Amino acid sequence: MFDPVGSTSWPNRHRPYLLRLDELLRREWITPAALPLVALIGPGAVTRFCRPLLRDAARHQARWRTLTGDLARYADQLLRRIPWLPLVSLEAQEVEAALVVPHELAVVDLSHRVLAAVARDLPAARCARVDLSCAPIPFVADVIIAFNVVSRIADGQAATDRLVDALRPGGLLLMDDRSADRFLPRARFETIADKTHRKRD
Questions:
Q1: Are 40 and 92 in contact (CB under 8 A)?
Q2: Domain segments of the chain as ranges
Q3: Do 168 and 194 contact (CB within 8 A), yes or no?
Q4: CATH superfamily of 15-45+87-199
Q5: Which of its termini does the chain have fewer beta carbons within 10 Å around, N or C?
Q6: Sign of the C-alpha dihedral, residues 168, 171, 175, 177?
Q7: Among positive and negative, which fits the CA dihedral 129, 179, 38, 80?
Q8: Other CB atoms closer than 10 Å to residue 37's CB: what's the count?
Q9: Nearest CA to 45 among 145, 143, 112, 103?
Q10: SS3 (DSSP) at 74
Q11: Could you list the pLDDT tens digit for every one of the 201 residues in the chain?
């Protein structure tokens, strides 16, 4: 059976939003008895072979290095379909690197290979294989990170509704603008920062 492996386009693409999330959690998390559950939805992965060649959004790089990185990204779109090539989930590792505040990490993806890569590199993470187009997320999270996920699902509204249902009242949803503008129920959320929304109810 085909195992769909999505991809983070380049390393540290969402780093500024993750660092701001860490600041928000450090300032606002006031439940010492329980750690916040941070759910990363559909992080995808890249091959370990292409990882060192990709452009890094956190660093200023020469034009030739940017071009090399973009070529590696396109090559990876083909290579990651080879089932025996080892993968790394960049976004999962970047969430762990950015969040200094103690937390629990849950990763949701459709791909067995992506979840296996997360389990290998981040053994403390809770992994769940879920098809958001037809199934709910099996837990309630304090934070949901869903960059460039909903826009790739045929029924984006249903997928967004499942994200909203899995977020506790007062929880934070980090989502790309294209998905939020089209599908996020604005009456139920307030935008508190760029790409960061708080659930009202």
A1: yes
A2: 15-45+87-199
A3: no
A4: Vaccinia Virus protein VP39 (3.40.50.150)
A5: N
A6: positive
A7: positive
A8: 19
A9: 112
A10: helix
A11: 467 787 666 788 899 999 999 999 998 876 667 899 999 999 989 998 888 888 776 677 677 767 887 888 888 888 888 889 999 999 999 999 999 999 999 999 999 999 999 999 999 999 999 999 899 999 999 999 999 999 889 899 999 999 999 999 999 999 999 999 999 999 999 999 999 999 997
Distance in Å from the first CA to the final CA of the chain: 40
Six-digit token pair at 185? 């129920």
Please give the structure tokens belonging to residue 70: 């973009």
Is the pTM here over 0.90, yes or no? yes
* Helix, strand or coil, per DSSP, at residue 133: coil
What are 82's strand-pairing partners? Answer: none
Write phi, then psi, for 189 (nearest 5 degrees).
-135, 150
Token reading at 178: 């294209």
Among the listed residues 179, 171, 96, the one whose alpha carbon sits nearest the alpha carbon of residue 141: 171
Helix (H, G, I), strand (E, B) or coil at 172: strand
